[in-house]
Specification:
Layout: H1 3-8, H2 10-13, H3 19-27, E1 32-37, E2 42-48, E3 55-61, H4 77-93, E4 100-102, H5 113-123, H6 138-142, H7 148-160
Helix pairs in contact: 4-5, 4-7
Length: about 160
C-alpha cells in the first residue's frame, strides 16, 4: 500500500469517518443537518458539500441559549430541543427548506438528545425525512421530568425563539 493510500484513510483508521455512509449522504445533493454532542453542549449545523471541503452554512450551539435567558444545563433534553428550534428558525431566514440528518458515528438511540434536536428542527418547519417514533415524548421535551422551573423557563424561551 502506498503512503498516499494510507494517508487517505487515516480518518477511517482513527474511527472518525464512515466513508460508505458519507458517500450515500453526499449522493443526495442535499444539505446535511449535522448534530454533535459534547460533555457540556450540543451543536447543530447545516452543512453543504464542496469538493475542497464541507461548507458550514449555518450553525447553532446550545451555548447560545444563555443569551435568550436559559439558566439550566445546556446538554439537557429541553436545551437540545430549543437548540434545534433555534437552528430551524435561522434556516428559514436563510431560505433553507430541506436537509438530511447526519449523526456521524454517534449511536442512534430513539428518544435521545440527538432526536430532541431533530424534533426542534422539524417543528420549526425544516423538512427532514424522519419517523415520528424516534422523537422523545412531549413531557420530556418540555423538561417537566426535571423540575417545574425548567418547564416554565422552557416555555418562555420557546416563545422568544
Amino acid at each position: 500500500m502506498s503512503r498516499k493510500t494510507r494517508l487517505a484513510f487515516r480518518r477511517k483508521r482513527e474511527g472518525k469517518t464512515n466513508y460508505k455512509k458519507r458517500l450515500a449522504l453526499l449522493k443526495s445533493r442535499t444539505e446535511r443537518l449535522v448534530i454533535r454532542k459534547s460533555n457540556k453542549y450540543i451543536t447543530a449545523q447545516i452543512v453543504s458539500y464542496e469538493p475542497s471541503s464541507d461548507k458550514v452554512i449555518l450553525g447553532v450551539s446550545s451555548k447560545e441559549l444563555a443569551k435568550l435567558g436559559w439558566k439550566h444545563s445546556a446538554k439537557s433534553l429541553p436545551a437540545a430541543y430549543l437548540t434545534g428550534l433555534l437552528l430551524g428558525k435561522k434556516a428559514s431566514e436563510k431560505k433553507i427548506t430541506k436537509a438530511i440528518l447526519d449523526l456521524g458515528l454517534q449511536t442512534s438511540i430513539p428518544g435521545s438528545r440527538l432526536y430532541a434536536v431533530l424534533k426542534g428542527v422539524v417543528d420549526s418547519g425544516l423538512s427532514v425525512p424522519v419517523s415520528e417514533v424516534v422523537f422523545p415524548p412531549e413531557d420530556r421535551l418540555s423538561g417537566s421530568h426535571i423540575s417545574e422551573k425548567v418547564s416554565k423557563d422552557f416555555e418562555t424561551i420557546k416563545t422568544k425563539i
